[in-house]
Structure formats: C-alpha cells, structure tokens
Amino acid sequence: MADHDPTAAVKESHSRSPAEGSDHSSPNDPSNAAMAEFHLNIEVGSDQDSTFGGSDEGGSTTTTSLASSVFDYVYENGRRYHKYREGSYALPNDDQEQERLDMLHHIFGLVIGGALHKSPISSPHNVLDIGTGTGIWALDFADEYPEAQVLGNDLSPIQPSWTAPNCRFVVDDVESPWAYPASKRFDLIHQRNMVGSIANWPRLFQQAFDHLAPGGWYEAQEFDVWFHAQAEPLSEESHIMKWQTLLDQASSQFGKRLNCFDEVLTAFGGVSFENVTHEIFKVPIGRWPKDRKLRETGMYLQAQMLDSVEPVSMAYFTRVLGWTREETLVFIAKVRKEFQNDRSCLYVYCHFLRGQKPAAE
C-alpha cells in the first residue's frame, strides 16, 4: 500500500481531477400539529417566500399554496420516493435515506475540517441551499450565521417543521424558472450532492448567477460517482467496476448523469464567474490509511457506501435497465462486499468548486 496523503488537494480553474470520468430527521407526519404549521408556512414554486418577506416591488404575486398532494409519496421496491414532480429524481426520501444524507453531511465536514463552505464570505444576508435534502446544511449555516436569512429548497418536504428563526424551507424544483424577488439577491448559493439531479447544468448555473448579489458566491460540493483502487486498478471483473459502469449507463439514459463532473466544470466555465477555484480531495474508503484522521474519514465513507449502494441503484436498475428487484439485490450484495475489502485501498474524489459574481454588474 502506498503511503501518501490521500486527501492532498489540487487547486485548479475549470479543469478536471486526476481521475477522468472516462476511466471509468425522519419525515414529519402530516397529521400532527407540527406538520400542520409546516404545511401552512411552506410554499411550492413561489415568487414570494416567507424568508425574504414578500415578492419584488411592483411584481404580481403568483404564490401557489402547498397542496396536500405534495405530502403524498410513491412507494416502490420497498422504498419511498417523492411525489412532487414525480420521477424527476431517482433516489428515495424515506427515513433510511435521510439518515444516509445526514451521515454524508458529517463526511463533508471531515473532508474540509468541519467547515460548511470554502467560499470566503464574511457577513452574508441571504443564502440559498438548493436541493437541501434533510436541511441539515441550511440549519447548521443558520446557526453559524444568525444574521443571515437561509432558504432551502427541495422536491421533498422532509425537512424539520421547527427550525431556527432565520431558516426556512420551500418545496420547489430548482430546474424550473427561479422566481425569487430581484430585491433579495443571494450572497451565497450552495449546492451539494446534486449530481444525478440536473438535466441542464448551463441553465442552472446561469439562473444562479442571475440571482446572486454582486460579489456573491456560488459553491458546489460533490463527490464523483466513480471509484478507484490504490492497490491496483479495478478490473473489468470487479463488481464495483460493473456497478459504476451500469450506473453511468442508466443515469445517462435517465437524462441526469451521475458521473458528470466534467459537464459541471464545462457549464460553470460558461458563466461569467470570477475568482473560480476548483479543489479536489482524494478521500479514502475504508480503514486502510495510516493517518488517524484519514482512517476516521475512510471508516465513515465506507459505512456511507454500504448504505448507498441500494438506494442509488434500485430505481436506475429497475426503471431504466429493466432488472427485477431480486436481481438488483443479488448484484448489489456483491458490490457491498467489495466495498468492505480494505486490501483494495479504495478511494474517490471529492470536488469543491466555487466562483464569484463580479462586484460591479
């Protein structure tokens, strides 16, 4: 096993990592009182949100009240999926998935020493967390910056009903036209774990750029969905190699590719961001590193991968590739076993990409 720092960061501007993609809180019960309040306060696809105090001056109000159907879910292959914009996202949103997402939040913190972001912000006023998931990043950011108003959006209403006074959540599709008021531009827009969720990256980044305040930052935090072995390259017979190849095929057919960071970089470079920085961290999977902190990160990421294989795979394999649930479960059991093998010295790349809107428009 090579003894070097697997989290060495490489800083670039609009460039690819050394690993080229080609190498291949529980949901609330709507019947309880807390959810009733959440139901009344949250909005869908609104141009007027409670965080920022109303629509833009002189603009018409097109707020759509949250319909009860938004709290409906789709059940498939033993997992629960979102109902709003059904089928546009391939991963579940049930309790098990929420626990996985919260663990991933912890892993991102381990990768960058407990920080929530890499962008050099000081006193943000308005902050947007797109695809907020359980809302854990938005809630932690609201605690760390009590003067900021933090808004998180997602297709699933799985965020807590009781939040910090400066944090709100809305059910919305980030790929739809953004209708946030022009008078309330964002000082930071944060993206995490959005690979596999976006069909049109150039449109997303352009909309984000348009809704940033002058001098505001956009930051993307993403793991590759492509895995490597340090001891020796993964062979074509490796179950992990077969799995990630099938995932790449299925997610591409789905129209929202998972292994897409090359596309993300290209799209980001097509928008007029300044001070663009791309940091890449090589993160171990398993207990194989000698360094104590790296071994801790690897331990958590290995547990994360064992929890991830099934929810990441199931919809792609059954909906797109036409596998049965039983065939999928048999195959992913072999993948999970391979992720448990520390002798392979598995690792993955994690990307932190950020750019600033010019201070003078």
TrEMBL record:
InterPro entries in the record: SAM-dependent_MTases_sf
Basic and acidic residues biased stretches: 1-23
Pfam families tied to this protein: Methyltransf_23 (PF13489)
GO molecular function: methyltransferase activity
Chain spans, region Disordered: 1-34
Gene3D superfamilies recorded: Vaccinia Virus protein VP39
Transmembrane segments: none
Domain of life: Eukaryota
PANTHER family the UniProt entry points to: ABC TRANSMEMBRANE TYPE-1 DOMAIN-CONTAINING PROTEIN-RELATED, METHYLTRANSFERASE
Full protein name: Methyltransferase domain-containing protein
Organism, as annotated: Exophiala mesophila (Black yeast-like fungus)
